[in-house]
Amino acid sequence: MNQQVQQQPNTLASPLFWITAFCITSTSLIQGWRFATHVHPPPPPTDTGAINIVGCNSFPYFDGVTINTALRAGVLAEDGWAVVLHLPYCEDRADRVAMGWGAMVDHTPDQIAAYTRQWLERQGVASTGLQIKFYPAKFSPLVRHPQFTESFDDFAARLSARPADLTFIEEAEIIFLRHPHRRLPNHAALGKIVDFVHTDYARLARTDTVPLNRVLARTGLYSLLIRLTIARHSHRVVSLMQVDLPHVAIEPFPHKAFMGTAHSYHTARRAPTELRGAYHTGSFNYDHKGWDGLIQGGVLLRARGGEAIDCWAMSGYDKERIEAEIEETGANLNLVGGSTDGASDFSKYKVMVFTGRHGGDTRNGSVAQALVLGQFVLLPRGSVTHKVYGEFPNVFAFDSPAEFVDVLSRLLESVPAPPSPRTVELFSYGAAVRNILEAVA
């Protein structure tokens, strides 16, 4: 059936677009000069043995930032550090609905803190010595994350209320996006400030639906803007994945891995001959998580009589769109709901699949978990995640939906090799935390 295609307005022809681009470019260059001429003071010595960890998301939104921030805090507290975990809480119920909190939309901060502790305990991490505090936040549709609503000075005072050796900021570029000209004061109380980059923004912006973001990425200004937002606050920047931002300097992955898997994944591993079926895990974010390719593969699976793929997803901004496309196309995909105990839910499968080409901490974490569980992993050839993990023997790649189905069918008939001791150690969360502490020393 022929369908009329509505012509989209040419955003690049808009004077407002170019005025905005000029203002951002000018500001970036000025701030870049200011950054280049500013030298961060060395962190003061402290003997408190304390760490602040500042997250930009919290449960029940299961993304990589939420999961890895909670695990990092829990493991450090279990190792004897005095850890305070600062998390956002959107006071407006409509914001919590927009973030996909579902049945937990009316949970109070105390209930979210209790849920976080329970989740950590299910991962095999004791949370006895962990303090969890919340800062007031408002959901931002621009960055699709909560951002603090109090003044910059009040937020800084909140973080420095207790002297610390280290302050870990998970995605400073998100947390401080509305205050790019400000820098955290009172470093004596915050200790050494370390920012963790969870996402490869430069790659993500190249395919962004916002034309301005694509222009910024192509001209290199996107990297500069992210650099300024991060580096203004941090003594050190640590990337949780391979990125092409010029300011991130770490040892090549996987020789120094900062991503770990919870202890529960190491103990949930089954015999290779017990594994069955395929699964996909990732939020309901259509482009970033590769749902278009997954649905195309699901359509071919049904046409060829292949086994359905179980899709684990709890939250996301495109949930209704994805559900509608699966129903309309008849794709052989089972939406089985969200997982709160991945080690138990995922350990039965033989193949973990992912069709998105972007990299991020969620995808890196899911692949590491699958490798620890002794599973096959099927990824788009040449994607960020494939470049990172392609050397592992259980990792396979595809170029098209047809090849995706062919390779998947072959893997489901094969037996994966058990993980090597090197893989198990590389992706232990203890090793990841040790690597982080060494990197920021």
Question: Any key phrases for this structure?
Answer:
single chain, 441 residues, alpha/beta, Rossmann fold, 2 domains, seven-stranded mixed β-sheet, six-stranded parallel β-sheet, 41% helix, globular
Structural summary, described in words:
The longest helix is centred in the first third of the chain and has 22 residues, at 15-36. α16 (384-389) links the parallel β12 (376-380) and β13 (395-398). This protein has helices at 15-36, 64-78, 93-98, 109-122, 152-159, 172-175, 187-190, 201-206, 211-219, 221-231, 263-267, 291-303, 319-329, 342-346, 361-372, 384-389, 401-412, 421-426, 429-440, and strands spanning 50-54, 82-90, 130-140, 145-148, 166-170, 192-197, 236-239, 278-281, 309-312, 333-337, 351-353, 376-380, 395-398. 45% of the residues are buried. It is globular. Helices cover 41% and strands 16% of the residues. The chain has 19 helices and 13 strands. The chain folds into 2 domains: 50-250, Rossmann fold (3-Layer(aba) Sandwich); 263-426, Rossmann fold (3-Layer(aba) Sandwich). The chain is α/β, with parallel strands linked by helices and 441 residues long. The chain has a 7-stranded mixed beta sheet with strand order 4-3-2-1-5-6-7. A 6-stranded parallel beta sheet has the order 10-9-8-11-12-13, with helices on both faces. Residues 1-13, 27-48 and 242-255 have low confidence and may be disordered.
